[in-house]
Amino acid sequence: MLESGKRAPDFELSDQDGQRHTLQSLLADGPLILYFYPADFTPGCTKEACSFRDLHQELQKARLRVVGVSPQDVASHRRFAEEHGLNFTLLADPGKRTVKAYGVDGPLGIGVRRGTYLIARDGTIIDSVLADLRIGAHEAFVRKAIESGAKLK
Prior knowledge:
Layout: E1 12-15, E2 20-22, H1 23-26, E3 32-36, H2 43-54, H3 56-61, E4 65-70, H4 74-84, E5 89-92, H5 97-101, E6 115-119, E7 125-130, H6 135-147, H7 149-152
Parallel strand pairs: 3-4, 4-5
Antiparallel strand pairs: 1-2, 1-5, 3-6, 6-7
């Protein structure tokens, strides 16, 4: 994981609709919660994504945007988002270049570690959490970000 206070690495990835996004474009409207997850449709990743979906109204009030990143392709992300009614952007990183840049590549380069970053509008990492098996730690992290949302603008 990257340290708080460091600049978040930029990237350019496609979302579930095939639209390209950079870190800077995602930060245009305010702070960002950027989370990395192992795979679409797995029980833990589905639970995590649905918990973020269910926080949508609170996230909007706090002017925070959630974006997920995993190695699956655009088509997989589209199916995952549609099946679970996900109301946020999922980015495809099949080469895991962004996964590696954010320090969440799995051991020996296998898989992806579950990590979540809070990134300020200027691209500075404010805070992060790495918890592979404690999925609830990521929801708690996002709730904490929502509570401090007014200070992030």
